[in-house]
Structures are given as structure tokens and as C-alpha cells.
Design a protein that fits this description.
The chain is built from 6 helices and 12 strands. The chain is an alpha/beta fold and 237 residues long. A hairpin with a 2-residue loop joins strand 2 and strand 3. The structure holds zinc ion (ZN). Zinc ion (ZN) binds next to loops.
């Protein structure tokens, strides 16, 4: 199960996301194989269930954890926002801030591989050309075709060759390969989405169950959880 709350739309976007992931895998294959070890579609078991990571690239220049999105429209958001907006011609939608989502993936890796717990892992968020990015973030948020350029822009040695080998092997071992377990993961995600949808229909916070209240800020109208600041769930309306 994904640790974070997942919107139903995110699930529907899975198929499109798959196309995006393929585009990224293709580009990552062009990296020098001796320098960069690539793992695609990694499913890891975590304390809360499981988490799926689109791509992990391991090199002496760092460990890169990549999340790919294939949304269209204008994508607007900031580093620390809970949700980002997808602005389409006739409507706005919410998507969970992919930086936060990917931070969850990074945490899962750190929890499972103590060796890199205190090292910096680089997060990269990629969007396909269907999107127009209007994002203000420290984390790399860019287009799929820029992925190798970004990875290669890191030139400081941070890991030894032995460490790279060990981390790669460890992740390969931890990656859940069985069809049965992968299917169980998808089922759990579906259930989480369903539960969240149910709560939203009842005007309840999908994260803590608290009532949702209409609020207004200088950025516009939104719905927030009554348990703020303990719960920071927000929904743009
Ligand atoms: Zn809440």
C-alpha cells in the first residue's frame, strides 16, 4: 500500500503513467552502463505495506530516485505544497505534490538500506511534454527528455564503486518480483483510493477522517481538514 493518500485520478492516470515510464526507461538505457546502474519499476515492501518506485539510478555521483508523471495541462505547484494543480481548459484538478510522493519513496529506500540512510538521495520528478510546468521547487522537476542531462550534471563523487555495487545488489534483492505480490500491491492501492473516495464523498478528510471545511486564502478557495494544523490535508476547489 502506498503510504500517502492517493486520488482516484492518480490511479486512472496509471496507464498514461506507464507510457511515460517507458519513455524514461528508454532514455536511461542510453546512460553509460559502467557508470550508471538502472532499476525500473521497483516494488519495495515497507512497514506499511509496499511502495512502487518508477526508476532508481545508482552511480558514484549519487543515487537518483525518479518519479514520472504523464499529465496534460498546466501543472502548478511549489516544493512544500500538499497538492499541486492541474489546470485544464475548463477545470482545475488536484494532484498530490509528486515531490512529497517521491520523498516517501526515498524514505522507504533509506529505511531498507541503512548504508545510505545518512547520505543524500537525489529526487527527480519528470513530466511528459503533454504538461506545461509552472513549478517553483528546489527539487529537480522537469521534462522527460532532460533526464540524462540532469543526472550527468552531478559530478561530485559521493559513493565508492563498491558502495554502488552493494546498493544496486541490495535493491535488486529487495525488489518484489513475484506476480502474486505485485498484484496484491495494485489491489491495496485500489482499496486505498476507494476508501479515500468514500471519505471525500462524505466531506471527510481522507487522511484522518476529520470534517472538511471551506476555506479561502490568497491563492484561492480550498477545503481544509478541521484538524489543521495536526493534519494538513487540503483540496483545491
Ligand atoms: Zn485530516
Amino acid at each position: 500500500m502506498v503510504i500517502s493518500f492517493v486520488f482516484i485520478r492518480v490511479y486512472k492516470a496509471k496507464i498514461k503513467g506507464y507510457i511515460g515510464e517507458k519513455q524514461v526507461s528508454k532514455r536511461l538505457r542510453k546512460l553509460n552502463k559502467r557508470k550508471y546502474k538502472v532499476l525500473n519499476n521497483v516494488l519495495l515492501k515497507t512497514a506499511n505495506g509496499s511502495t512502487q518506485i518508477d526508476h532508481v539510478v545508482i552511480s558514484i555521483y549519487g543515487v537518483f530516485v525518479i518519479e514520472t508523471k504523464n499529465y496534460k495541462g498546466i501543472i502548478k505547484g511549489n516544493e512544500y505544497d500538499e497538492n499541486w494543480s492541474q489546470i485544464l481548459i475548463n477545470k482545475n484538478e488536484n494532484l498530490r505534490n509528486p515531490i512529497k510522493q517521491n520523498n516517501g519513496h526515498i524514505k522507504a529506500i533509506k529505511d531498507l538500506i541503512p548504508e545510505i540512510r545518512y547520505k543524500k538521495i537525489k529526487s527527480i520528478i519528470l513530466f511528459s511534454k503533454r504538461a506545461r510546468l509552472n513549478v517553483n521547487a528546489v527539487t529537480d522537476v522537469t521534462y522527460i527528455n532532460k533526464v540524462n542531462k540532469i543526472i550527468k550534471s552531478y559530478k561530485t563523487k559521493e559513493y565508492t564503486i563498491e558502495e554502488v555495487e552493494r546498493i544496486f545488489k541490495k535493491l535488486e534483492e529487495l525488489n518484489v518480483n513475484s506476480f502474486k505480490e505485485r498484484k496484491a500491491h495494485v489491489k491495496n492501492v485500489k482499496r486505498t483510493v476507494k476508501n479515500a473516495e468514500k471519505k471525500l464523498k462524505k466531506n471527510r478528510c481522507p487522511r484522518c477522517g476529520g470534517k472538511l471545511k471551506k476555506k479561502k486564502s490568497k491563492y484561492g478557495k480550498f477545503k481544509g481538514c478541521k484538524n489543521y494544523p495536526n493534519c494538513t490535508f487540503k483540496l483545491n476547489t
